[in-house]
Amino acid sequence: MDTVFNPILGYVSDEYAKDADEEMHKTYDPVIESLADNYALIEEVIDVKESDDYKNGSFTGFVTDDSEFTLEEGKEPAVAGSLKKACQISDALVLQYYEETDKEKAAFGHSLSDEDWENISEIKDVYVDALFSTPIVAENVAYPLLQEIEKELQTKGSKELFLSMFLLTECFLHQGEPVPTFKGKQDAASLHAVVESLDIVTWLNINNIDIRIGRRRPIIRYLISLKYKKEVI
Questions:
Q1: How many domains does the chain have?
Q2: How does DSSP classify residue 186?
Q3: Dihedrals phi, psi of 80, to nearest 5 degrees
Q4: Kindly report the CA angle at 60 between 56 and 66, in degrees rounded to 5?
Q5: Is 46 part of any domain?
């Protein structure tokens, strides 16, 4: 993977790892604890009690309090425990959902509602968020990309158009609307005018609502801070 987009940790010290681990647990332990029903659902779907591992006692079911995070320089953040195992199953089931035309067959003979599938998918979303979305980790893994963006923004004449297009695109995606097409420099003013009319609170709230932008959150905070000349938390 291109090093600019590869979400690996560029710097890790003992102190950083300790602080990051504390922040990840503080932020996401309550979220992971809320996955108890999601875990029970996938256990039912894959008939876990019929597995050899369950019968011989080597696997007793998914729990919500066994997450162990690992942070090593040059590697992606990692987690061991039920969350990782459940994510692997969630990912496989969701892939099967899209590949298999018979949804009951995709669920191994179980009849699942759309809400059930959303609950299965939520597990992998929480997994990604827990690993990459806490500020101390997100800013670390996004640093190479932020450097590229900073370089682009320092190019004469590109800052306003680049920033405006990015924010406008995010706005339309967030609202579930098609992104309009703008061409040429003459539309830069139009773009800028639209962005200027946006409520900054809307952008600050992006970091707290469930729209699953995951690893791009630190970039959005960074770009907003550049535009509004203020620190964005």
A1: 2
A2: G
A3: -110, 155
A4: 140
A5: yes
- The pair of structure tokens assigned to 10 is 């560029």
Residue type at position 177: E
Q: Which domain holds residue 22?
A: 14-134
Which pLDDT belongs to residue 145?
73
Of 4-13, 66-75, 116-125, the poorest mean pLDDT is in 4-13
| 128-162 confidence digits (pLDDT tens) | 999 988 888 888 888 877 777 667 666 665 655 55
Rounded to whole angstroms, the Cα distance separating 81 from 33 reads: 13
89 and 42 Cβ atoms separated by less than 8 Å: yes
Q: pTM for this one?
A: 0.69
pLDDT at 121 over 90: yes
Give the span between the Cα atoms of 78 and 69, in whole angstroms. Answer: 6
Which segments of 46-187 does DSSP mark as H helices, in order? 52-55, 82-99, 103-106, 114-132, 135-141, 143-153, 159-174
**Does residue 26 lie in a domain region?**
yes
Structure tokens at 131: 């690993």
Distance between CA atoms of residues 23 and 134, nearest Å = 7
- Shared domain check, 95 and 39: yes
